Structure formats: C-alpha cells, structure tokens
Amino acid sequence: MAASTDPLDLKLDRFVPQLGLKKEAGKKWIKCLIRKQWLVLQPEEFVRQLLLNFLIRDMRYNRNRITVERGIQVIDRNRRTDVLIFDGDMRPFLLIECKAPAIKLDQSVFRQASLYNRPLRVPYLMISNGRQSYVAAIDYEEKRYAFLDRVPEFPR
C-alpha cells in the first residue's frame, strides 16, 4: 500500500440498496448488519452501515471479527468504539471512527480516533464521514503514522 494524503472515495452510496431501512411509528429505522437489530436512523449510523457493507461485501472482512460500539476504558472514562475489527488471532486490527456526512474530517476527528486507540494499539486507524475516508498505518516503534491509498486487506 502506498502512502497518500488524499481522502479515499470508497463509493459507499452503491450499498444503499443493501441497507435494511424501514419507516415505522413515524421514525426511520436501519438494521445493523452486525448486531442484527433495528436502530433509529442517525446520520452516523447510516455511515457505519455503509462502511460495514463495504468491508464485508467488497473487502471480504469476516463479520465474526467485527464489533460495533464496543466499550473501552480510555483515561479513566468509558468510551465506545464505532467499529473495531480483530484479526484471525483476535488481536485488534482496524479501528474505525464514523462521523455524519456533514462533519468535516479534520485533525480533531483523527485525534479522537487516536485517543480511542490508546488501549488497543491497532496497526490501522480509519476515519470516515461516508463521502471521504482516511486510513492510516500506525508505526508504534517509530512513533509515526502514514495515510494509505486504500483500506488494508483482512488478515487471513
């Protein structure tokens, strides 16, 4: 994978037809691909479900290695990861921070994802608002990161 500072366009809109969407009791709902339950449709959840479809359908990520809203302890506070993916040995592999499409992806979003990563130490960190996505490879020994030109393959 080559280094890149340009955002990735994963063309997530093509997965809209695969989303479980319904309207009931005056509310819009979306079905979570991982949790298999209906949730009130929020912009961030919409992005999360599009990303999950991309990872499972296009990238062939193992859905049994994906967790959503997993609780973690960060600096004495309880937090929840948007998406956390484990490798075949159940080590944290990729942490994803999802934002609503209207949210600009800037340094503060990457900082938030980095903060959530402190106890996890994943090799890859991703932020996405559905329109743009950034993926970074983290080098803990050198204490640096590099943005990538694509999403990493799922480790087999």
Short description:
This protein has helices spanning 43-58, 107-117, and strands spanning 20-24, 27-31, 38-40, 66-74, 77-86, 92-98, 124-128, 133-139, 144-147. With 156 residues, the protein is of the alpha+beta class. It has one domain (12-147): tt1808, chain A.
Give the SSE order as H and E letters: EEEHEEEHEEE
End-to-end distance: 17 Å
Q: What fraction of residues sit in β-strands? A: 35-45%
CATH architecture: Alpha-Beta Complex
Which parts are unreliable, with pLDDT below 50 for 5 consecutive residues or more? none
**Proportion of helical residues:** 10-25%
Instruction: Enumerate how many helices there are, as a single number.
Output: 2
For the largest beta-sheet, the strand count, sense and barrel status come to:
6 strands, mixed
Would you tell me the structural class of the helices and strands? Answer: alpha+beta
- CATH class reads Alpha Beta
Structure commentary:
With 156 residues, this protein is an alpha+beta fold. It has a single domain (12-147), classed as tt1808, chain A (Alpha-Beta Complex). Helices cover 17% and strands 35% of the residues. It has helices spanning 43-58, 107-117; strands spanning 20-24, 27-31, 38-40, 66-74, 77-86, 92-98, 124-128, 133-139, 144-147. The strands form 2 sheets. It has a 6-stranded mixed β-sheet, sandwiched between helices. The model has no long low-confidence stretch (mean pLDDT 90).
